């Protein structure tokens, strides 16, 4: 590993530092001499400082990072690898919807993250499964597809709740 250069004094801020760009400290250069140009973001059409790939910071993060971070958080939460997560959430088990698919625990135990306990359901079927009015209908659809969902037992003393 290389040795750092000896510190110099910046003529602008009079601070002693190692990181120089030419004759002044790198941060002084960025603050006082580097003029970024605002351009129109091709995605959101706003006049902004553009980040990487020609997009503003918000569009860049939305396009390239949020889906990845969401998937990583779900994988950490369910303790499964990315290939298994992608396979399970490829499409809804019941209707085949493939735009947005959520994971559901068949035995309704959030700690049981085995692959044969997790299925992918679209937002509609997942909400229906967690609503008393439609639960039996969705359970029957799952049984018809060869799955064995288990109904969570109601706690005593709580009216209509778990």
Summarize this structure as a short list of keywords or feature phrases.
8 strands, alpha+beta, elongated, 35% helix, two-stranded antiparallel ribbon, single chain, 162 residues
Percentage of residues assigned to helices: 25-40%
Instruction: Please state roughly what percent of the residues sit in beta strands, choosing from under 5%, 5-15%, 15-25%, 25-35%, 35-45% or over 45%.
Output: 5-15%
Compute the average pLDDT.
Answer: 83
Helices and strands, in order, run as EEEEHEEHHHEEHH
Number of helices: 6
User: How would you describe the shape?
Assistant: elongated
Across the major sheet, the strand order is: 1-2
Distance between the termini: 59 Å
Q: What's the layout of helices and strands?
A:
Blueprint lengths: L7 E2 L6 E2 L2 E2 L2 E2 H8 L4 E3 L6 E3 L7 H8 L1 H13 L3 H7 L13 E4 L12 E4 L1 H7 L2 H13 L18
Structure description:
- This protein has 162 residues and is α+β, with helices and mostly antiparallel strands.
- Among the domains are: 39-78, no CATH class; 80-144, no CATH class.
- The protein is built from six helices and eight strands, in the order E-E-E-E-H-E-E-H-H-H-E-E-H-H.
- It has helices at residues 26-33, 57-64, 66-78, 82-88, 123-129, 132-144, and strands at residues 8-9, 16-17, 20-21, 24-25, 38-40, 47-49, 102-105, 118-121.
- The strands form four sheets. Strands 1-2 form a two-stranded antiparallel sheet. Strands 3-4 form a two-stranded antiparallel ribbon. Strands 5-6 form a two-stranded antiparallel ribbon.
- Strand 1 (8-9) and strand 2 form a beta hairpin.
- The N and C termini lie far apart (59 Å).
- Mean pLDDT is 83; it is low at 154-158.
């Amino acid at each position: 590993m290389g040795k750092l250069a000896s510190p110099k004094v910046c003529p602008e801020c009079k601070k002693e530092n190692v990181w120089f760009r030419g004759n002044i400290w790198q941060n002084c250069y960025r603050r006082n001499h580097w003029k970024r140009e605002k351009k129109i973001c091709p995605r959101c059409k706003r006049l902004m400082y553009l980040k990487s790939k020609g997009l503003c910071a918000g569009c860049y993060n939305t396009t390239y990072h949020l889906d990845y971070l969401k998937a990583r958080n779900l994988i950490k939460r369910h303790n499964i690898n990315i290939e298994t997560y992608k396979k399970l959430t490829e499409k809804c088990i019941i209707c085949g919807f493939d735009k947005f698919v959520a994971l559901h625990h068949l035995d309704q135990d959030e700690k049981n993250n085995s692959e044969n306990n997790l299925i992918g359901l679209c937002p509609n079927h997942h909400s229906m499964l967690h609503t008393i009015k439609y639960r039996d209908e969705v359970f029957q659809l799952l049984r018809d597809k060869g799955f064995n969902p288990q109904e969570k037992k109601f706690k005593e003393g709580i009216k209509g709740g778990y």
